[in-house]
Amino acid sequence: MEENLQKRLIFSIILMVFITAATTWAADSAQSSPVSDMFPETSFRFDPVVEGSEVVHDFVVQNKSTEVLTINQVKTG
What we know:
Largest sheet: none
Order of helices and strands: HH
Number of strands: 0
Structural class: mainly alpha
Strand content: under 5%
């Protein structure tokens, strides 16, 4: 009976370690992503404008890598 209790305790400890590691990894991933690192501002909503008026907004892109940055598939909302 005591051996069974020990196995369950060890299993519970291992399970808690995995859950803690997965939760920490998920929190780290949510805080920083390639898109949020490169684009501090990912969307912009214009105020109402007269139809036919030209509206412009510049987005800052920060390439924090030494690699060439290629941006594909830009879409408007």
